[in-house]
Write a structure and sequence with these properties.
Strand content of chain A: 5-15%
Shape of chain A: globular
Largest sheet of chain A: 6 strands, mixed
CATH class of one domain in chain A: Mainly Alpha
Structural class of chain A: alpha+beta
Number of strands of chain A: 13
Radius of gyration of chain A: 26 Å
Helix content of chain A: 55-70%
Distance between the termini of chain A: 37 Å
Number of helices of chain A: 25
Oligomer: homodimer
CATH architecture of one domain in chain A: Up-down Bundle
């Protein structure tokens, strides 16, 4: 590919693009999160780390960051999008990010979303000010992914006008609960609501955990989860309830209420639909995690790219100085496609946040809109958190032994984000949810998400929609038949071709899945087996869907760039994001006749070319993320390597010269 | 695929197979590494952890584990294979594994391999008894991969009959040196030897670090590397030398010596060849790391499989109890191919250890034999350590939140092994070394491994060998032309077909690489650019080579099994290892016409079938590793989950029933 001379990043234009709709929140976070109080520290003991994070949280409680997500009536900012963006900026310590998410996102957010006016008035001010540190007590030891099967009970006692909250056995203890081991005073507890001997499914109640002295209240037992792989500044704990009594009004009663006589009522008749409606209001947590994962990946890339730009190893025959790591193709291939995908996910994340924000600000979403939002959130959370784990790992390895030292931050970023792939929804379970949502997209009612419901449905109603989708087929056939060769290489960078390729894959995988489910059901096999046999196909359908969404978001963002030089760079970056994905997934395209072998090899060659073209812009691209140097903190990213080389130059040897 | 009823593991037969040639060493390690002194602990502070590991090492110094690798003349066991196997058994704490490796492998091993009788007699007894804790001071801050370019100097002063060891600048400080921050008294220091104003390349010398009180000796400055991602029981440090004087006899003089008058002499004329000969004697370190990585992967799989066998989540419509995780196809797909590959790597490792051991015990290897051993070690180290990182990560995620808790060991295993991918040779650099070794396989002399040398050589001499290899082509053409379909599915499990497929890929990738290098050289491009442009191809050639070696080792091991039931299971496991590899790499096979699209899809289907067939044997397969329960330590692998479910059953509900 010829070098286009106009490719040159304008830092301000790039920053504007990346800061996006909530630029003001990002600027505010850059202003607030500075100084020694917020500087990353390594090597803290668990107790010390927890204390520091709590102190930091107190400092943030005095700022608007604490209030963005809450109703203006109670002093909140009324800006959900801002609350998600503020969360993702807290890369100076991911323990702080998660602790803030527990207090103001999960705990406060559940009161806001599931409670009614009386809860808002009574609790939200204390939630925001941190007078009332709280927990989101959903997960139990026995049930993490299958929340509908939680076993804690909240049994109504009409004589006392109270609920009795109880942990029936060890599997029902609340587990991994953030803010529980040390700080939490109050908890939103998810429990099976029982009244008049009848079960009404999972509901949330406010249950006190500790008194003003910090002593657990009678009937509450709390245990520390102890050290974890990371996030040791967050005090995760286990909670047992021994017939703990709370007033009837402790029930967060927006979607289900109990009258004084014990009568249950709900605006939603179907218990299943009610449950998923309640869960749906909590989708912000997943979206926030996807954003936080993205920032961690950005920080790791900023460190590795800066180091890769100055670190030298091995000499080349024709020059006195040693070769800079980022000049090696293998190094480019490790870092630059990951950088491109990080950009793509950034814009997909912004779209998702906007969708959440606008959905809450405007007319309530209809069922399908809500389901699509939830699937979008689930899919992006899974993809973004796996991407973060892989990218940070790659960055660690790209920095060699230096990347293994705590002082260079990569170990902490890696360990802290590791749990992102399994908390707020296990990624595999989430992708399955996306796959099922795609399958049930035309279904009119909320249904159980168990294998039986889906398989039955697919066998019955779904096939009509498949026919609609096959309209795209003629385009696809045309694409596949384009002869490979020189003209085929330029088509690789054509956005229309890329889009058609990814859309077609999405549709074809889904069609094939529906076909297999139908054939399985027709064979008379039991529904579990039918669905389980195609589980890998379900996950692929979900990935193909998310891949297309992410592509669209990046392409749309590039279309918004006015500065020609910046745009030229981002067009290549978008090409790299897409073609490195196509390269990774090229087996599928080959198997299904969408790429010829020659074209597939051309994709690999194009990825190499794009790496070379983008290499000069790598530093500007990571600088565009707008992460403060003090957040990166790693000496290898902040001049230590240059200083060593300069010392050697002063000693009379050319920089990087081999002895 | 039909279920073969004869597949059933005989535990003793499997253990014998896996324990292999050094079964006695494994049994000994199981005997020694027990009790509270060696039980894994989590949450230790760095100082406490270091102290504990040093205490453990002292206990081991009293056992034969310390002596296996040393000459019998000085009280050693004279069994290098045993020393590598003993190292890999130390999974109870990988800090202990690495600390032992530093003391008796790297430090003691360098004295043994690079020193002469005077060093052996004077130092080996103290090395073995731990009276003399020591360091292997090779890596510098500025040079890790490119060891030939180290900058520490050892300048001979004939007047004093001493060497002056010196750190000329910050980039030349020794870095990441195990045993340096706390315990080391003596170091093998790699430095540029200078005598009479002439440089003779990197040599090793014994330099004291601390006196009997543990105080650094004059001229030596030591700094702690501080906390790391893992291995915090190992005291890594940085060392500066300020004109430190050591006697002339401190030079480990097997491959290069300096007479009293300053005259340099060596049994190897070429400085380049001398350097690589010295390095080659240290190959055991890499082999040991590959083995240690393997054991860590085994431990993680043992934990995740045991948990996956009892942990339940989500109900199926037709049964009262919830579904066990390992019954989900997606869960099988995560764990079982990784388990199969772990087996394959185990046998490849045993072959490599035997090759090293027999090479040292018998006639010295010729140059080609030595180069192949080194390439074998480099390739297996890269592949095995990446496999361990990925596998432990997968196991962590497969255990959800429980996998993130320190008490369940997976975080520590993951963090400790993380550096294995970049120490003892960065994996990318090692694979490049393998690729170059393949290219230079017929070359008669040691040559510089820099890009120029290789590219020139390839353009000149290499092409002859390519012609020889094409003899395999007719077989390949035949394979590719086999019609897909029913008979094609059974061919997938044919070992001959699998072997031909992997051999052909290995040869074809190498041929293509040679062709591209030749074309690049012919084009007049500079050698660095020529080589850099195909760097991804070099890495692929290396991987294809290692993949074939690993396959051969597993297939050969299965062939040694007499018990029919065990053999039937291991045949499937070997099929799964191979076919999941082919599945992952199927894009290449499709691009090169080695698999038709239908056959490629059949490979995916076969992987799913094999997962289902092997699922009942998963527990027996991990038990076969022979890792003591107290090494696994994780409550989730040792009955905690069963206990919770039993508690629930006692409470009157069927185990795993959904509320």
């Amino acid at each position: 590919m010829p070098q286009r001379d106009d490719a040159a990043i304008d830092a301000a234009a790039l920053r504007d693009l990346l800061d996006g709709r909530w630029a003001e929140v990002r600027r505010r976070a850059r202003e607030v999160l500075r100084g020694p109080e917020f500087a990353p520290q390594h090597g803290l003991g668990m107790a010390e780390h927890r204390a520091r994070v709590t102190d930091q949280l107190r400092l943030l409680a005095r700022t608007d960051l604490a209030r963005y997500g809450f109703s203006p009536e109670y002093g909140g900012g009324g800006d959900v999008g801002a609350s998600v963006v503020a969360f993702e900026m807290l890369v100076c310590d991911l323990s702080l990010m998660v602790k803030l998410g527990v207090q103001w996102g999960l705990f406060g957010g559940a009161i806001q979303a599931l409670g009614t006016e009386r809860h808002h008035a009574a609790y939200l001010p204390g939630v925001m000010s941190l007078e009332t540190p709280g927990c989101f007590a959903m997960t139990e030891t026995g049930h993490g992914s299958d929340v509908q099967a939680l076993r804690t009970t909240a049994t109504f006692d009409p004589d006392a006008d109270e609920f009795v909250v109880h942990t029936p056995d060890e599997a029902a203890r609340k587990d991994y609960i953030g803010n529980a081991a040390r700080d939490g005073r109050l908890a939103v507890v998810f429990a099976q609501l029982v009244t008049g001997g009848q079960r009404h499914g999972v509901h949330a109640l406010l249950v006190p955990l500790r008194d003003a002295d910090g002593t657990p209240v009678p009937g509450v037992r709390i245990e520390d989860c102890g050290p974890k792989a990371g996030l040791n500044g967050v005090d995760n704990g286990r909670i047992w309830f021994d017939h703990v009594r709370v007033p009837r009004t402790a029930l967060l009663n927006r979607y289900g209420d109990v009258a004084a006589d014990g009568t249950y009522s709900s605006p939603i008749d179907s218990p299943n639909r009610r449950f998923f409606t309640m869960l749906g209001t909590l989708v912000r947590g997943r979206i926030s995690v996807a954003g936080g994962a993205g920032t961690a990946a950005k920080a790791a890339l900023a460190i590795a790219v800066r180091y890769g730009e100055v670190r030298r190893q091995f000499s080349r025959p024709d020059r006195p100085e040693e070769v800079v790591l980022l000049d090696y193709l293998a190094h480019q291939r490790r870092l630059l496609p990951a950088l491109a995908r990080t950009y793509a996910l950034h814009f997909a994340q912004e779209e998702l946040v906007a969708r959440l924000h606008d959905g809450l600000a405007g007319e309530p979403l209809d069922e399908r809109g809500q389901r699509e939002l939830e699937a979008h959130a689930a899919g992006l959370k899974a993809v973004a958190t796996w991407h973060a784990s892989e990218t940070i790992q790659t960055c660690r390895e790209a920095c060699g032994g230096a990347g293994y030292l705590a002082e260079n931050r990569l170990p902490q970023l890696r360990a802290d984000t590791d749990v992102f792939t399994t908390f707020e929804g296990d990624n595999t379970v989430l992708l399955q949810l996306v796959g099922k949502s795609l399958l049930t997209n035309y279904r009119q009612e909320f249904g159980s998400l168990d294998p039986l419901g889906t398989a039955k449905f697919v066998a019955g109603q779904f096939l009509g929609t498949v026919a609609e989708r096959t309209a795209a087929r003629s385009l696809r056939d045309r694409l596949a038949r384009v002869a490979p060769g020189r003209e085929g290489d330029s088509v690789l960078r054509d956005q229309g071709w890329q889009r058609a390729l990814l859309e077609d894959r999405e549709n074809h995988v889904l069609e094939g899945l529906a076909r297999r489910l139908r054939a399985g059901s027709a064979s008379g096999a039991d529904p579990f087996t039918v669905f389980n046999d195609v589980q890998d196909h379900v996950l692929l359908a979900a990935r193909a869907h998310v891949d297309r969404l992410v592509f669209e978001a990046f392409a749309a963002a590039v279309g918004r760039v006015r500065d020609a030089g910046t745009r030229a760079v981002l067009e290549r970056l978008c090409d790299l994001a897409t073609l490195s994905l196509v390269e990774r997934e090229r087996a599928w395209f080959l198997e299904h006749g969408r790429l010829t072998p020659a074209r597939a090899k051309a994709v690999t060659a194009a990825v190499n070319s794009l790496c070379r073209e983008l290499r000069p812009h790598a530093r500007a691209l990571v600088d565009g993320f707008g992460l403060r140097d003090e957040w990166l903190a790693a000496p290898i990213a902040l001049g230590a390597e240059e200083a060593r080389q300069a010392g050697r130059a002063r000693a009379g040897e050319p920089v990087g010269a081999r002895s």
